[in-house]
């Protein structure tokens, strides 16, 4: 069953890119420098091809179409270098695609990557979406199957990618909604603008039909989100989270495999997070409502890893939708870009 399910997942074709953020120079430099420093401390040579990939990304950083991804295929990476990379990526989620194919890696690298994704899943349940609009979760990880990297762990990684990819889409929808004034009632003009920004193609006819078919001639936010997500599924930017996916996520999150905990969000301020908020209904992971996710994070943080503040944070109650000023003052180092843009 697992093998068949795994091949079902790999057979899906996605449009060429789900990324909702533009890679910024500061993010790339931080990851690169942290990775280099870790390699030096461990007496590991920083691969030349990795240096070239960073130079390529840095030359385009901040410009339209500069994707928050790292193509590290065929870079002569080892398990040791990948584990140090994952430590750097754990500082905060700012990369949406990671390609590790063509390297001589084992289960150790795959398992560490899986633990990083589990840590990002914990962020989903811990931090309200309005406080992580600038986050870019790892929505796609490419890794070769090998002798010790089995279909089972690739299945786990791919399943977690599905959820994280969809959360990137939700964050883009939410940010674009705020950019359009966060109206309580979403009319034709707002729907058409949000559709164009998120989907990447203008379709006023579709927007007009959606509004005219609604008895109230306007949409609430939840209706808007569902409509845009369904369109993204049609264009294969994201996939529907199935019952089998949910079962697998519950199994993954319930294991004793300790997550790689994230130390911060990009440009995050610890004072922005309410550590004393009461647990409430969590609107962050609607796809996982039926999943009882538990983790015992005690005593699982390695000696060289900083303790994350996230393991002390309770669930926030669902926020009221309020209008936000269209300003760059609170923008993080990651900007919004069209989700379906190649």
From TrEMBL:
It comes from the Eukaryota. Residues 295-307, 328-342 have a biased composition (Polar residues). Residues 295-342 are annotated as: Disordered. Residues 308-327 have a biased composition (Basic and acidic residues). This is Uncharacterized protein. It comes from Chromulina nebulosa.
């Amino acid at each position: 069953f697992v093998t068949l399910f795994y091949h079902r997942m790999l057979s899906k074709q996605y449009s060429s890119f789900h990324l909702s953020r533009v890679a910024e120079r500061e993010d790339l430099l931080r990851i690169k420098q942290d990775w280099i420093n870790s390699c030096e401390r461990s007496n590991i040579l920083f691969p030349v091809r990795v240096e070239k990939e960073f130079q390529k990304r840095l030359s385009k950083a901040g410009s339209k179409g500069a994707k928050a991804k790292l193509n590290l295929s065929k870079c002569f990476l080892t398990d040791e270098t990948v584990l140090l990379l994952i430590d750097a990526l754990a500082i905060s989620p700012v990369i949406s695609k990671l390609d590790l194919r063509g390297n001589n890696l084992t289960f150790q690298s795959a398992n560490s990557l899986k633990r990083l994704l589990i840590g990002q899943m914990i962020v989903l349940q811990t931090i309200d979406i309005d406080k992580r609009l600038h986050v870019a979760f790892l929505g796609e990880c490419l890794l070769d199957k090998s002798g010790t990297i089995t279909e089972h762990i690739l299945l786990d990684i791919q399943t977690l990618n599905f959820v994280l990819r969809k959360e990137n889409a939700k964050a883009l929808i939410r940010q674009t909604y705020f950019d359009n004034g966060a109206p309580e009632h979403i009319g034709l003009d707002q729907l058409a603008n949000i559709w164009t920004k998120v989907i990447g193609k203008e379709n006023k006819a579709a927007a007009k039909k959606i509004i005219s078919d609604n008895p109230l001639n306007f949409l609430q936010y939840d209706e808007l989100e569902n409509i845009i997500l369904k369109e993204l599924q049609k264009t294969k930017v994201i996939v529907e989270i199935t019952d089998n996916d949910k079962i697998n996520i519950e199994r993954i999150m319930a294991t004793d495999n300790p997550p790689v905990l994230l130390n911060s969000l990009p440009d995050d301020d610890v004072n922005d997070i309410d550590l004393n908020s009461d647990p409430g209904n969590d609107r962050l992971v609607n796809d996982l409502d039926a999943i009882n996710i538990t983790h015992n994070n005690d005593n699982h943080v390695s000696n060289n890893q900083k303790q994350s503040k996230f393991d002390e944070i309770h669930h926030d109650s669902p926020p009221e939708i309020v209008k936000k000023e269209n300003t760059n003052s609170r923008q993080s180092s990651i900007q919004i870009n069209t989700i379906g843009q190649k």
